[in-house]
Amino acid sequence: MPALAELFLLDKEIIFLNHGSFGACPQPIFDEYLRWQRELERQPVRFLGRDYDALLDAARARLAAFLHAPPAELLFVPNATIGLNTVARSLMLGWLKPGDEILTSDQEYGALNRTWAFVCQHTGARYLERPMPLPVTTPAAWVEHFWQGVTERTRIIFLSHITSPTALIFPVAEICRRARAAGILTIIDGAHVPGQLPLDLTALGADVYSGNCHKWMCTPKGSAFLHVRQEHHAWIAPLVISHGWLPEGTFISQNQWQGTRDVAAFLTVPAALDFMAAHDWDSRRDECQALARYAWQRITAVTELEPLSPASQTWFGQMLALPLPPCDLPALKTRLYDDFRIEIPLTTTPDGRPLVRVSCQVYNTRTDIDALADALHSIFSA
Ligand SMILES: Cc1ncc(COP(=O)(O)O)c(C=O)c1O
Asked: In terms of residue numbers, what domain contains 234?
């Protein structure tokens, strides 16, 4: 077991191949989280009443530098769902008109599909889930196929940067570039990206981008961000209207206070960044990506099914989804957990073919992947 694995609070009896769902937090970062909670309780009035903005601004500045974004465009939110809901709900306030089209893929996160269904129900806009061919071939072919879904009514493009069910990296930078030229708003769901892929929000050029720190940056749960480019601040309405909703307010001042709440997870971001730097995270990430490619080989050898993508960093980072033979997914999940102590999510392609989604974080080794491959072999060869 790598020394770093010892630092994680995970149950050592479980083969944990599901970092992607809710992340996992190492002890030093979790200790910092508890320290902030104690600090709040020591003097709640000073913490929440006087120091609140300065504390959050300092943490935001660190995150902004990491993401290459202006701090004034970056807001802490508890999770990507809330970040993206803030924007989606704002678009209902006169921005979207009946017949407007929101173009997306058929591999988006379920909760966000529901968010857009709600928005469309109330605005008369249309949410178009473009079927994207699997397996993927080249980013250029992917972009061309997606772009054929754009019409003169397309006002928004909504895409995951890394998808949930298929764990693919979508070539969103090129889509954002084309969309900007065409006057289409881009909203990118980067829930899985910070910490997993290098991220330069300014270079990427999305109008809106929301990402989680509590997944691949290993902060405690409830730490995420919403990035909105300056030119869109005027139409963003806070999801929660509170003291900051003043005519002269900024994107930050209008949204940063949402009533009394625990912001310790936000304030832990600098400690997470320090942790990543202290442990040479770029090298660790390379090792995890190599482990993901090992998983591609091992599991493909067991199933003999065509993978969703080549074993290439172009298409996946530390997380990948691999096809499984036809099976009863809930029964398989129970079997993997009960009989093999493997915690792993099972998903499907848009047309319902079963997938196993493997996450590789610094605490995982080839032994974990071998255990999964052996378990699948014994189940499917029986
Ligand atoms: C692509 C994608 N978007 C959004 C989310 C939602 O993240 P959260 O629950 O932190 O809001 C997830 C969660 O796994 C996801 O995979």
From this structure: 29-274
